[in-house]
Amino acid sequence: MKIKVRKTAGFSLVEIIIYTAILAAASAVVVSTLLALTSSFENVKSGKSIAGSANVALERITREIRNSKSADLAVSQFNVNPGVLKLNAVDQSGDEYTIKFYIDGGVVMVEKNSESAVALTSSQTVANDLTFRRVITSVGEAIRVELALESDSNGQLKSEKFYAAAVMRGSY
């Protein structure tokens, strides 16, 4: 006599365990990838914020150095951190003005003719170092600027240092 085994629809316990393990492994890979992408995005975002702030600040500082005729040695603080740079300059219409650069509360500030100061760096960055170095040669005078910025975006701390130099046109 033959015994007929009746097949029923569904999964066995072993199959369910194997499929669950495969699904768990795939989910872990996806979550790990998403976390890595988020971390990379935050790092790029911090770098972009730092680069943008450095570009704006150094562009303005070097442009004003080039347009200036001299540095105000009584107010300027060279070779120290944080430094102060006050320049005596002439605008395109021939009017004289002074412009001052300094750090206040981790923000690079510019102050023209002792008016209200304006921030040159974004609120997402912190300026740790602003050092001005005076370079004097037989043909003219230059200012070297060192700027260190950092940004903390969701625990991703990124710090970069930037350098620029410009010759004062009125000095040669």
From TrEMBL:
The keyword Transmembrane applies. The chain crosses the membrane at residues 12-37. It comes from the Bacteria. Keywords: Membrane, Transmembrane, Transmembrane helix. This is Prepilin-type N-terminal cleavage/methylation domain-containing protein. It comes from Candidatus Taylorbacteria bacterium RIFCSPLOWO2_12_FULL_43_20.
